[in-house]
Design goal:
seven-stranded mixed β-sheet; 11 strands; four-stranded antiparallel β-sheet; globular
Length: 123
């Protein structure tokens, strides 16, 4: 059964840090990523990583967030530092099983999604 379960969200002050985790089950996923969404806006690609650990970051988080994965545990992580109020959003874990030349930050290219975990950053 395919299941992606996020955890680690919460409330933090600007400048603080949070670590998100995603526990995956059902398959070994070639590509995994983190996306975020606020009401009325499209889902934004935050970071993505392939099974060979190729990585891409969205421009707004590059240098502040770090994505990683543990293939043995089928887990995905997002270390978020220097958080800003504009990072406030629902964060989603996503996964894809097929082949791609490089990790994607396009939401429509992912097949599986978690339910999300809320991150709130106050100023």
């Amino acid at each position: 059964q395919v299941q992606l379960v996020e955890s680690g969200g919460g409330s933090v002050q600007a400048g603080g840090s949070l670590r998100l985790s995603c526990a995956a089950s059902g398959y070994t996923y070639s590509h995994m990523g983190w996306f975020r969404q606020t009401p009325g806006k499209e889902r934004e690609g935050v970071a993505a990583i392939s099974s060979d650990r190729s990585i891409r970051y969205g421009d707004s988080v590059n240098g502040r967030f770090t994505i990683s994965r543990d293939n043995a545990k089928n887990a995905l992580y997002l270390q978020m530092s220097s958080l800003k109020p504009e990072d406030t959003a629902m964060y989603y874990c996503a996964a894809f099983r097929g082949w791609r030349a490089r990790p994607s930050l396009v939401a429509s290219e992912y097949s599986y999604w978690g339910q999300g975990t809320q991150v709130t950053v106050s100023s």
